[in-house]
Design a protein that fits this description.
It is built from three helices and 21 strands. The protein is about 5% helix and about 50% strand. The protein has two domains: about 210 residues, no CATH class; about 90 residues, Immunoglobulin-like (Sandwich), CATH 2.60.40.4070. The strands form four sheets. Strands 8-7-6-5-4-3-2-14-13-12-11-10 form a twelve-stranded antiparallel beta sheet. The N terminus is likely disordered. It has about 325 residues and is mainly beta.
Length: about 325
Amino acid sequence: MRATPVIFAVLAVTVGAITPPDATADWIGDYYPLVMNATWTFQNADPPFDQYTESVFDPFEYDGHPAVRRGEDLSEHTVASSDGSTVTVYAEVHGGVLFDYAEDVVFGEFEDGTMFEICPGGECDTLLIRRWDALDPVIRDIYDIDPSLTDVVVISSYDRDYDSNIHNDILAYGLPGGIDPPTGAVTNIDWYQRDVGLAATRDIDAETGDFGWYYYLIDYAVGVGDASGTPDAVVLHQNYPNPFNPGTSIGYVLAEAAPVTLTIHDAAGRLVKTLDGGTPRVAGHHTATWRGSDDLGRPQASGTYFCRLRAAGNERTMRMTLVR
């Protein structure tokens, strides 16, 4: 049975009441989207290769605040809201049981990629966030990060009931000046892709430091609808991964059934590949894959390409980067 990743965990550091600093980066919009109907599907890298899907659902008022649920279902989710530059977490639900935070937990980001957290009057886990592309490639290999992910940040969760394990030293590499890792064992590592959200999560045994399960993103749909749950007529998502080699997934959403034309063009506008030539598609989310070749199967050179979607009288275009 998969253990549900807890990204915002209430653990064991007391922080006095402090004034939240001004966030200078749109962390919530980039790395933790709280857009109604957005979904993320993950698959275990190990047998039995099970999957699970998280989504943003059920806008409601929680303790006088507008909020949404983000998680698997009503029995496993986080209650949170955002103002565009910070995210506020009010509670978590596990096994259908509500765990209300003694005080709201507020997260945000500085321009250098470090995260601040505000846990006034209560206990709070310390999470660190930083740009993964600043790390040594050898360290990237340790955690099986796809090298094509060029704009990723990492969050580490700690449990202070255990002694530090080797991952404390690994994840402390290259931290901005003045940022000290907390005392305690690393128990979970999550990495986030800009404009996508959670891209992968790896469990670590707090006592031994051994790797546990490793779930990675296989499909996503961010920004499918607004707070009313009504989607746009046609939505074309940014391909993932991007940049990519050799292949990439392209997601799109139709509000109603319609024939779809999905094509790839080079920087000069020339047609390179037809992924869909007018096939009728039902309403909902769809995914296509481009493997970097033209209609004759010839591999294409590194560079910028454009994906064009036509459906229901609408046209959407998205830029992609192929790196050989």
